[in-house]
Amino acid sequence: LAHQNWAAGAPENACKNTISPSLVTKIYKEELHSCGPGPGRRAAANANRRLQLLEVTSYLENYLWPHFHATKSSLPHVMSIVLMANEKFARGFSFWDAVGVEGAGGGKGGEKFTAFFARIQDLLTGAWTRFDKKQAAAAAAASAGAAPKLSYHERAALTLFLINVFQSLEQPLVRGAALRLCSLPLWAALSPGRLALELKAYPQLRRHWLHLQEQAAAAARAAAAANGNAPAADGGGGAAAAPEGGSRKRKKPPTDEADAAADGEANAGDKGKGKGRLPEGLMAYLERFLELLVDLLSQLPTRRFLRAVLLDMKVLERCTLCPLGDGAEGVPRPEGKLFRQLLEMYRFYLGFEINDQTGRPLSGEEVVAMHQTRLHTLQRIVFKHYKEVLPELPFASASQAGRRAYLE
């Protein structure tokens, strides 16, 4: 197949002018579908051999990437590119050079990568069928309008691709596309109370947040006018008037992948309760997801706005209490050893003692003051809402209330 369609020496019209979607689908289903990362980030030996064979014949450079189309390429085509890209990263080859994105600008290769990265985001958020009417109609007929469900192997491969992307921020084009996922609009996923706390802690961001809310409101009005619907009246209480409230009621930006991913991880971990066997590929997906979060928290540009969202979603607590973590009953599952190791790394970077906006190391006094402020906030909430359940906690000293044994 390689010599007939894309390898060096193939007919001119075979690798440059046409592509066979059925061939791409066949290769993906028969050769690549099971080549995603397994537990411990390694694929099976036979899967590695298949990937290496396709890599040697330049399947990505000569066939997949030149014929990628932002709106028409199928799911097997996109996933094939992802798997081949992961193989290049694993072997130490430059994926960015292979697709023409190396260096500033990127030219046509840069435009194509931007479109491809948008497809990756839509795959992870379940919105990919909006690109192709035929695919959307088929999905609607098959599953009442729901987007096709990705397997855990595919989710793990996509997450590994994101890890590789965020480890390549030295590429200007990649940096511009990737950092949009971790910018200020991510705070639209925060609860109103948490958003108010963050804007109070960093007042210099309030003006930027108000500007973003005004832009979102204007876009919503324009969309409503285009659809012939009358926009809802703000009545003085719109986004600009109340930036701390109601952010969850509005449509979240497409960059808000962290919300869906964190919920997906916690829910998936809950499926492993008991002693039953975990679904195939789930372990690899959860490990890759935690690895992605660790990488994002270890870099200031990606940590800056993401950490507040992860804290608000209680990702650490939910992962710790799931059966793969410590377990709600203190009996963790044995196959979750690497998951728990990654969770400890996540815990370390989540609590790293720096200013999230500036990167300045926090002094010991600042760390103690922040800890006591959180304790006093907890005591006020307990006194107001849970005084009958925990009558002694609101009146405990900070040193006493901060001990795990006392809280238990």
From TrEMBL:
Region (Disordered), start-end ranges: 230-274
Where does the RNA helicase aquarius N-terminal domain start and stop, copy by copy? 1-223, 276-407
Superkingdom of source = Eukaryota
Query: InterPro entries of this UniProt entry?
Result: Aquarius_N
User: What is the official name of this protein in its record?
Assistant: RNA helicase aquarius N-terminal domain-containing protein
Q: Which organism is it from?
A: Tribonema minus
